[in-house]
Amino acid sequence: MLQLINNLPPNVAGLHAFADVTEAEYELALIVLLDDLLKTHKKINFILVLETSIKNFAHGKWCGNVKIGLKYFFRWNRLAIVSDQKDVSGFSDFFKCFIPGKFRNFPLDQLEMAVRWVSAK
After folding, report:
1. Can you tell me whether residue 112 is helix, strand or coil?
2. Residue 87's CB: how many other CB atoms inside 10 A?
3. DSSP labels, 66-77
4. What is d(CA 121, CA 94) in angstroms, rounded to the nearest whole number?
C-alpha cells in the first residue's frame, strides 16, 4: 500500500510504502505525484519511505521505476530512499547508473535528515 507523505517542503514529493504494493498502484501514484510537482517546480526532489520488504513490491516494480526515471530523465534533482533494509541501497545504486541527479539512502530513524537533504537547493 502507498500513502502520500504530507507536510513536506513544497519542492518535495514523497510516498510511504508499506504492506503489499501493486505495480499499477505504484506507477499511477508516482506519475501523478511527479506531474503535480512539475507544475510548480522545474526539478524533481522525491522521497520514498520504504517500510515494507522489497519483496512486497510487485515483480518488476523497480523496472517500472526505471521507465518512470527515463520519462522524467532531465528533471531529476534529488532522490532519498528511507529504509532500514540493506537490500534497498543496491537498488538505488543501480538507478544512479541510469538516472541523473543525486541519490542518498537514509535509515528510518533519520527521516527528518532525509527531508532536509532532499529539499536542499
Report:
1. helix
2. 11
3. HHHHHHTGGGEE
4. 24
Kindly provide the b/e burial profile for residues 10-21, where b requires at least 16 CB atoms within 10 angstroms of the residue's own CB: ebbbbbbbeeeb
The DSSP secondary-structure symbol of 89 reads: H
Name the β-bridge partners of 81: 48, 105
Residue 42: C-alpha distances to residues 5, 34, 65, 91, 118 (Å): 20, 11, 20, 25, 15
pTM: 0.83
Give the residue from 115, 102, 95 showing the smallest Cα distance to 48. 115
Report the amino acid identity of residue 72: Y
Helix (H) or strand (E) segment spanning residue 42: none
Which bin fits 95, alpha (ψ -120 to 50), beta or left (φ > 0)?
alpha
Contact of 80 with 57, CB cutoff 8 Å: no
Q: How many residues does the chain have?
A: 121
Q: What is the pLDDT of residues 42-86, one digit of tens each?
A: 999 999 998 876 665 544 454 446 666 667 777 889 989 899 887
